[in-house]
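Figure-free illustration: sequence to structure, shown twice.
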Amino acid sequence: MADPELEAIRQRRMQELMARQGAGSQQNPDQQNSQEEAKREADERRQMMLSQILSSEARERLARIALVKPEKARGVEDVLLRAAQTGQIVEKVSEERLISILEQINTQTTKQTKVTIQRRRSVLDDDD
């Protein structure tokens, strides 16, 4: 004994949800191309700025870090770019200075690992 109004509301709601999911995943191909192009251009500008403020050794080290931990490399790049934009970096960053920056970031983001051991208790074990 379903109420016809309630069933109609459910149907409309399902259609709205399906339309939202479809609209989010299917964009106009022109919009997708323009978004990809804008993303590519921003990445090129970012890389050009980094090449201007990093020495070749520091760039190589950052590239190796990006292979292993892309999010950490991105964070270091952000720190370097921010420092360059505020005028804190006046000469190219050497590999040694990059290492010191990495060490500073590591001390700020060090995670504490905690191991807890939970023993299973059998029915036959005594709790003496």
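We now fold a second protein in the same way, so the two outputs can be compared directly.
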Amino acid sequence: MTPTHFAFSSMFMLGLAGLAFHRTHLLSALLCLEGMMLSLFIALSLWTLQLNSTNFSASPMLLLAFSACEASAGLALLVASARTHGTDRLQSLNLLQC
């Protein structure tokens, strides 16, 4: 395993561990998701550079576009839950209520 591969794998695993273990606030969960998407973007960009082919050159930009859409939807949900519930704590959100 190369050091670059180890760095991006550990970056993704740290984001996943943060998402799994620190689910107290919605903002911290969104930040962990963004860290995971950033590690995937950098790893995919380096992979296309190592292949030296133009066939996969659009895939990092597509991933970045989906990541931006995911971030905007997450922030909209954060603002909506903060307005209705007064906090972003995940324990205060009841999914069974309308």
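Summary for the second example: Residues 1-86 form a domain with the Helix Hairpins fold (CATH 1.10.287.3510).
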